[in-house]
Structure formats: structure tokens, C-alpha cells
Description:
Blueprint: E1 2-4, E2 14-16, H1 28-34, H2 51-64, H3 78-91, H4 93-103, E3 110-120, E4 136-138, E5 141-150, E6 156-163, H5 172-177, E7 195-197, H6 205-213, E8 217-219, H7 224-232, H8 242-245, H9 249-258, H10 262-265, E9 266-267, H11 272-289
Parallel strand pairs: 3-7, 3-9, 7-8
Antiparallel strand pairs: 1-2, 3-5, 4-5, 5-6
Amino acid sequence: MIQTTGPRGCLSDYLIVGLVVRDGEITDAAWAVIEPLLPPAGRARGRWRDHRQVLEGIVFKFRTGVPWRDLPERFGPWQTVHGRFARWAADGTFDRLLAAAQQRAEVDWLVALDSTIVRAHQHTGGQRGLEERGLGRSRGGLTSKIHLACDGRGRPLSFTVTAGTRNDCTQAETVIDKIRVTRPGPGRPRVRPERVVADKGYSARSFRAYLRRRGIKATIPERVDQLAGRRRRRERPYGFDRAVYRRRNVVERCFHRLKQWRGIATRYEKQPGRYLAAITLASTLIWLQT
């Protein structure tokens, strides 16, 4: 259901009921989950900017991809919004929001794994330290790569950011190791999926052995050269369920939802921790919407 929130009826005034408002506002239902997890309000000499107002400014910035200095005045001074975003990115506030959103949802433990490349703005680069900042230089310019695992309903569980030139399989174990969903009530967080579905880029023997050690089922097709080598050695091929593999497309849909945020589809943040914080915030709102 769609309603307009202003007399002009322009695109930025449209509200999708029950979800996040298009121009950055957050619904009362989402705010009820987020508010208790934010740091306590501080004191300022001038007017204190409410956490909700600032958070909506952060959402607006990454949804639209505008520079910090061009944030609309209704969110307060851009320095306040940027400063609080940097502080929350450093102290783990966004990680706590994502953990709380995952805890209150029912997770489908068929996990799909993949990566996507994003273009990085020229201002994120420099002469040195590109790899440490999760940036790679190729013919197309500077790029980063988001490695991500999502549940069977296309909601992000864990992710990491590397240079765009990094091979997919090198981060597979890291992404799976970062899965940690707190259970409601007492008990340890759940860290092990029932099954991992991935494409041929993750068919390395080392990754299959890692999944086998952890008792995780794998649905990963083998590359042609791996199949040929297995036939030469007269080895039995790995089991592969095509019906299960069709569900891998949920990770593609997950990337599609994340890249609707222009500040994620193109990387403008120079520091990798802040870019990860933006992905974490977007992932939190995806969980709260479903």
C-alpha cells in the first residue's frame, strides 16, 4: 500500500506502509526495536539532535548517495549526522542493531554464499594502502568486493569487504565463521548453517573440507577441470542436488536489495569500517522489514 505524505505528491514524499520511508524516515515499529540499543543521549551546549532524527539522516545519505555536506536541513547539521555515524560505526552500535534484528526473526538456515563487485569513487583511493582499505585497482578503476552469506529468505547473515580483485573462495570461511545469530532466551548463539549453497567459484577442496569438519552440508557444483581430474583418478563425484541449487538465487536478490542503496552500490566511504557499517545498517532494515 502506498500513501503520499505531503501535498506535492513527488517521489520523495511517498511512503510504503510498514517499511522504511523512501526519503530516510524510519517507521515506529522499526524504531521500537532500534531505540533501546542506541547509546544514551548526551548533552550539548546548543540544541541536542534526537537520535531518531540523526539516524534518519544516515539512512537518507546512504539511500540516496548524496555527499554528507548536502544532507537536507531537516536532519540537522551534517557534521552532527556524520560524527554520530562515525562514532556508532566505531563502537559497534550498528552490529548490535543487526544482531537484535536477526534475533527476533525466524532464520531459514539454508545459507547462500556469493560476492558482488562495487565501484569505488575516486575520492576513496590514494597512492598507498589500497588493499588494507578494501580497494583494488583494475582497468575499470577502483573497486571493492562484498562477500556475503544470506539465509534462505535472502536476508544478510554475515559479510565482509575486500579489494575487488580478491578471489571469492579466499573469504568463504571468514564469512561463514562470522555467522552468529543469538537465540531468544538462554543458550549460545547459533553459528552453524544446515546447508551452504554456492556457485563453482567456491568448489575448492579446502572449503569443502572446512564445511565437512563443521558438519555443514554443501551444494556446490564442480568446475569442468575438477570433474575431469576426478574421472582420471576414478574418484566418486561429490553429491549435487539441482533442486536445492536453484535456491541459490536468494543471494542475488539480497544483493539487489542492498544495491538499491546508492551509497552501497557505489562506495564513497574511504574507511572500510564505515562502509561496512553502512551495509550493516541496510541489512538491519532488511531484517526489520521481513
